[in-house]
Amino acid sequence: MRIILKEYLASLKERGELDKSVLPNLLSELGLRVLNTPMIGTRQNGVDIAAVGKIKGQDEQKYLYLFCIKAGNITRRDWEVSEQSVRPELNEIKDVYLRSNVDHENGTFPVKICLCCGGELEETVLVNWAGYTEQNKTENISFELWNGDRLAELMMSCLLARELLEDEPRRNFQKAVAMVNEPKACYEYTQSFLISLLLAEHTSRKDQLLKLRQSYICLHAVISWAIDADNLESAYKTSELALLLCWDIVRKIKKKKKLGKHDRSLVFIFDQFFQLFLQTSERYLLKVAYPHANQTHSLSVAVLSREPIDVNIAMFELIGRLALHGIWTEYISKSFTQSNPNLSGSLTENINNILDKMVSIINNNPTLHTPIRDEHMIEVALVMYLAQLTQSVNRFLPWINVMSEKTTFALLANTQYPTCFRDYADLLSHPKNSEQTYRDDACAGSILYPYIYFWAQWACTDDEIRKFAKRLEEQIPQCTHQAWFPDEDSDNLIWRGDTYHGVCVTDLSPDKGHKALLEMLNQAMATCTEINDISAIRSGLEPLFLTACRHYRLPIPPSFWHVNL
Amino acid sequence: MEDNSAMESDNFIKKALEDADLRGGLIHSILSIKSQTHELGAILCELHNAGRISLLSKTNLETIESLNQIKFWAVSHPICEAIPRLDSSYREVLTLVQTLVDKAGSDGAAGMPYTFLIKWCKLNPDKAQKIVSKAKDLDPICLSHCTFALQALEDIELAFDLLSYSNKKLVKSGFQALGRLEINGEPDGKRIIDKCCEALTPDNGKNLRLSAIETAFKTWEKIGASNPYRQQEFLENVITQNECDELVQLSAFLFYHPNGLVERSIYLILKALTTNERINPKATLHWLDLAMHANKRKWDYSKTLDAFAAQIARLDSEIESNQLYHFCDYAWEDSDNISTLFSSWLLKGQFNLCTFLVDMVGEAGKKNASVEIKKSDLPNDSDDQIFIARKCIGFLWLREVTAASLLMSIVKNGKKVARQVAEELLFNPLLLSYSGALRAFLEEKCGSSSKRISNCAQRLIEKHNTYTDGLKSAKHLVELLPTLEQRRSSAMLDRERRKNIHNKAHEKSLFAQLTSKQVLLYGKKSFSIIQGPGGEKTPNITPLSEFSYTTEVPRLSVVDPVGFTKMLTIFRLEQRVSK
Question: Is B570 an 8 Å CB contact of chain A?
Answer without folding.
Answer: no
